[in-house]
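>> Question from a student workshop board

For tomorrow's exercise we were told to take the sequence and the ligand below, predict the bound structure, and bring the output to class. My setup keeps failing. Could a helper post the expected result so I can at least see what it should look like? The ligand is NDP.
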Amino acid sequence: MNVLVLGATGLTGRLVVEKLLKRSGVTSVVVPVRRSLGIDSPKLVEHVVDFEALESRADIFKVDALVCCLGTTIKKAGSQEAFRKVDYEYAYRAAKLAKAGGVNRLILMSAIGASSRSTVFYSRVKGELEDAVRGLGFDYLSIYHPSLLLGDRKEHRTGEAIGMAVMPLANRALIGPLQKYRAIEAETVAEAMVNDLMESDNGKGARPVVVVWEYDDIRSLARGI
Ligand code: NDP
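>> Workshop helper replied:
Here is what the output should look like for this input. Compare the format with yours to find the bug.
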């Protein structure tokens, strides 16, 4: 299987790449990036691309599956518009290119609360992306709805740092219907995504399948990682 990973230099994307490279069923991991991952592997195919001109690199989207862990924050992007450009536009254009290139499986990182009807801008953009990629008709579309991601992030994000400090305690209080808001290790999400991808065999011509995974489902898919 040849897999393209978007957002490969990010917290989750990098873990997905590292895990895919170790799987025997994976022939190549293609990563369109702005900067090198610095991973030395014969299976890794790195392309430094201009995300504004993704269509000029349609050739690299001719793979078997797409994993999208692309994203930014409104603060980092500088404005809502700039955030939307990355989290909606780049992701959607990439999914469209992948579909046109013959990809039938998409693993999409979204977020808990994503809904095109949300009054929260971040959640609305995530929901709009989900709706848009649903419309592309992948045979297998797998959408992830984690809450706060825990992990070894190089860059400092105050909100997330506070979240990481309090979440282990808060997680215990989040029970029943609130369990889906528990923070989760990015490592767990990445393992779930890779298992999901390797096990999804919704062959061409089968009825399209769309699945949405929340905290409990993600942990089950990751099988204890
Ligand atoms: P990171 O923020 O660690 O990484 C984001 C990735 O997107 C990086 O590869 C980054 O590339 C790339 N990217 C960002 N801006 C641009 C741009 N303008 N052009 C090209 N590439 C860009 O991601 P996380 O692992 O934290 O999150 C992954 C996804 O999960 C995101 O969609 C996020 O919204 C979602 N999510 C995150 C949560 C969290 O707690 N962090 C919670 C729930 C969902 P580069 O390295 O070049 O900047």
